[in-house]
Amino acid sequence: MSGTVKAALIYPPLTDPTSGYHSLNYLDSYARAQGHQPAEIIDANIEAFHHSYTPSAYDWLRRELSRLSIDDLSGPDALMARANQLGLPDPDPERLRRSIGVLQDPTLFYDYRHYQDAVEGVISWMDALGSVGFPGQFHAGFRLHPPPMISIGSVAALTDEALLARLNRPFLPYYEDVLIPRLAAGGHQVIGISATYQWQLPFALWIARLVRQACPDVFLIAGGTEVSDVWKCASKPEYVFQVLADFDAIVVGEGESAYTEILDAVAAGTLPAGHPNVRLHPKYGRQRHLPLRYERLAQVPVPDFSGLPWDLYLSPERFVYYSPTRGCYWNKCTFCDYGLNTDGPTSPWRQDTVATMVADVTELSKFAKFIYFSVDVLAPATILRFAEQVVERGLDFRWGAEIRLEKYWSDERCELLRRSGCVAISVGFESGNQRILDLIDKGTKPEQVRRTMTAMTKANIGVQMMGFTGFPTETREEALDSVTFLRDNPDLWTLGGLGDFMLTPGAIVAKEPERFGITNVRPVEGSDIVRMLKYDEPVTEAAQAEVAQAKAGLNPGHYHRPWLGSTDTPHTFFYHDRYGTAVRGVLANDRVRHDTDDQTEFLANGSFVDRDDEQVWEAYRRIRSDEQDGVPGELPADRHLFRRVDGQVFALNRSSRLFLDLFSAPLTLAEAQRRLWIVEPTVADRVWRTFIGQRLIRRHRLPAEPAR
After folding, report:
1. 624, 85 contact by CB (below 8 A)
2. Spacing of C-alpha 608 from chain mean position
3. Contacts of residue 507, Cβ cutoff 8 Å, sequence gap at least 6
4. Mean pLDDT, to the nearest integer, of 90-118?
5. How many helices (H) and strands (E) does the chain have?
6. 224 Cβ contact partners less than 8 Å away, ≥ 6 residues apart
7. What are the beta bridge partners of residue 315?
8. What is the pLDDT of residues 130-171, one digit of tens each?
9. Strands 667-668 and 601-604
10. Which of 3, 134, 152 is nearest to 73 (CA)?
11. Averaged over 338-343, what is the pLDDT?
């Protein structure tokens, strides 16, 4: 072993800009403990974002937008691109800078009116930036909506150079001016790219291509959950390195010891063929693969996060991820399919000792106020012993985790969690119907879940609820049990809601379809990386539309990940720390018409979509109908489509448009009422309440900033 290997580790777009992720820090800290020198860790996601509004990149963006053409596209792709161009905002770097300032400000961040305006400013910028690729490719700012063939995992699409180049075009100035020159001059022998989410894969592939061209002799590796999923879900083994063709090797599964052995091999001038989690490119010849290795947590040191660019993240506080367990101690849920599981729903269960956990958070809390336990689940007795020691030692930090709502959690134990710094938990309650819970093999009962939620709420710990409808054979009535459970207990949970069941190949449901009443199980047509399966099951399918209608509006949050209102995001934990279980009311307050609003100026918070080209407008209507995030039904063809600043589209009738057009310039509600004197005041007031509640209009003047 030698510590002389110079390595760079890259976290690519497109993902959460509010905090650094922990995967690369775990790898680097482990390698350093084995005697290797620190790697250069590059968060390309946040660097690319900040570079996009520098003067040179903004000039480039304006030039690109002025000559933006989609003439090279044809068929559905061209129509989709033209449709998504409708209503896109102009880039405003000054507004973006103000928005970043608010999100990083320890006072303004916690004023929800300032927060909303800032988030919408960032999303608006990303919408404009994304339009130089495939218009509409960025959603909620930092989620990728690529062309369908990319989404479903087509090898042809994932290896299409022109398609990948177009998706990556918004970040071209960053690649050309910053990232690639930095790597080319860096003298690295190993460069690694880690992709955690599917959204990152097209960017990771393109960065790899650029690195291979600029640094032909470097040993280029890929890892992360998404790379493991490509390996796990490829319908043919050869597809893996067709997609990951530019890499010398990939790491499948947990990567600490695999990464270190790669460094050892490069230092020795050999190939890293001895570790079972390392898969070499076929150009190095055939390999004999041993069973995958799962790390011994006792050998994994506390991660060092000091190398991340903390001044760049869009948050007022540092927020770090910590993983003292791997796998799930329950490991029975029939829908679950996570990690490199072989004979169970998750990876094998492992857990650090309480003493190690306390020692680790003692170090981490010197660096960051917020620590999120990034695990599948924490065991109740372990959490309690951990909390006891945190309180005894007087450690001052905030934390949250995903747990199971066991009957173990009494009022007294929940109070202890809160005293130890726990501000919020998230729970997969899955369903409010006992038969469905039994089919899932969840091991819980709705009434017990309610009692545990009550105990957590009494302790001022926010409970974030995660569940879904559509599990095979679920009837309309059983699905509505879940809706009713959440709707009847609004004071016992803060954020969350109900998603839709998706079947993945490694789930017990997919392995035993007859047990769950499903037939004709098949991959999505055109997919080579098979992440999701389709199937036939008439009972659940018949209830989908009505259930979707019932679920609409359950989630009190207003924005998608990575923003406040989404489960387990840094911003959500910050607000839980500040406002406790009252966070729902804080979010709702600015969406309510107040008595003092008659003399408040409001302004339209978006614009109507141009209808000059009926074919394009109709395509836009259909596309956005499919993107309504759980809101059922299509956007009616006879409605006016209003695109809110954050990209959400609303279908308004003619009379609503007459009301909303009043606010094209700042206007008080009292003046708007005078201009609409023919309309009954009670009717107008109902319209104002709807517009404010849906943030179609926003208060023109934000609260005064505090004196510095």
Report:
1. no
2. 28
3. 334, 335, 336, 337, 345
4. 97
5. 29, 24
6. 23, 193, 194, 195, 196, 200, 255
7. none
8. 999 998 899 999 999 888 889 999 999 999 999 999 999 999
9. antiparallel
10. 134
11. 66
**Confidence band for 218, pLDDT divided at 50, 70 and 90:** very high
Residue 521: predicted pLDDT: 96
Non-local (6+) Cβ contacts of 71 within 8 A are none
Strands 219-223 and 249-251 come out as: parallel
By DSSP bridging, strand 398-402 and strand 350-351 are unpaired
- Is 371 exposed, middle or buried (CB count within 10 Å of its CB: 0-12, 13-18, 19+)? buried
The partner residues of 59 in beta bridges, in order of sequence, read none
Task: Return the DSSP state at 697.
Answer: E
Residue in the block written with tokens 């599964």: 253
Strands 370-373 and 398-402: parallel
CB neighbour list of residue 471: distance below 8 Å, 6 or more residues apart: 335, 431, 436, 439, 440, 501, 540
Contacting residues for 477 by C-beta, under 8 A, at least 6 apart: none
| Separation between Cα atoms, residue 153 and residue 172, nearest integer Å | 24
Cα separation, 544 vs 538, in Å, equals: 10
Please list, in sequence order, all residues whose beta carbon lies within 8 angstroms of the beta carbon of residue 143, skipping any fewer than 6 positions away: 14, 199, 560, 561
The rounded radius of gyration (Å) of the Cα atoms in the chain is 26
Query: Which residues, in sequence order, are bridge partners of residue 192?
Result: 9, 221
d(CA 184, CA 178): 10
How would residue 630 be classed by pLDDT, with cut points 50, 70 and 90?
very low
As a whole number of angstroms, the distance between CA 493 and CA 425 comes to 10
Per-residue pLDDT reduced to its tens digit, 530-548: 999 999 998 888 888 889 8
The conformation of residue 293, written as its DSSP 8-state character, comes to: P
What is the rounded CA–CA span in Å between residue 540 and residue 281? 44
Per-residue pLDDT, averaged over 453-469, amounts to 96
pLDDT number for residue 168: 97
Q: Averaged over 183-205, what is the pLDDT?
A: 97
Least confident of 28-32, 334-338, 522-526: 334-338
Rounded to the nearest 10°, the torsion over CA 99, 100, 106, 110 is 40
| pLDDT above 60 for 701 | yes
Query: How far from each other are the two terminal CA atoms of the chain, in whole angstroms?
Result: 54
Q: Are 145 and 80 in contact (CB under 8 A)?
A: no
Annotate 194-249 with DSSP letters as a single string. E--SGGGHHHHHHHHHHHHHH-TTSEEEEESHHHHHHHHHBSSTTHHHHHTTT-SE
CA torsion, points 378, 382, 388, 394, in degrees to nearest 10? -60
**Cα dihedral angle (500, 430, 294, 370), rounded to 10 degrees?**
100
Nearest to 152 by CA among 414, 532, 661: 532
Please name the residues in contact with 54: beta carbons below 8 A apart, sequence gap of 6 or more: none
Whole-number Å distance between alpha carbons of 21 and 46: 11
CA distances from 392 to 396, 413, 416 (A): 11, 15, 11
Is residue 47 scored above 50 in pLDDT? yes
Give the orientation angle of helix 446-458 with respect to helix 476-487, to 10 degrees: 20
**228: pLDDT confidence band, cut at 50, 70 and 90?**
very high
| Residue with the two structure tokens 């809706």 | 483
DSSP 109: G
- Closest alpha carbon to 525 in 50, 148, 25, 60: 148
Residues ≥6 apart with Cβ < 8 Å to 677? none
- Asked if pLDDT for residue 39 goes beyond 60, the answer is yes
Model confidence at 288, in pLDDT bands (50, 70, 90)? confident
Supply 133's token pair: 């690729």
Q: Quick check: 81 and 134 in contact, CB under 8 A?
A: yes
Interval 495-510 mean pLDDT: 93
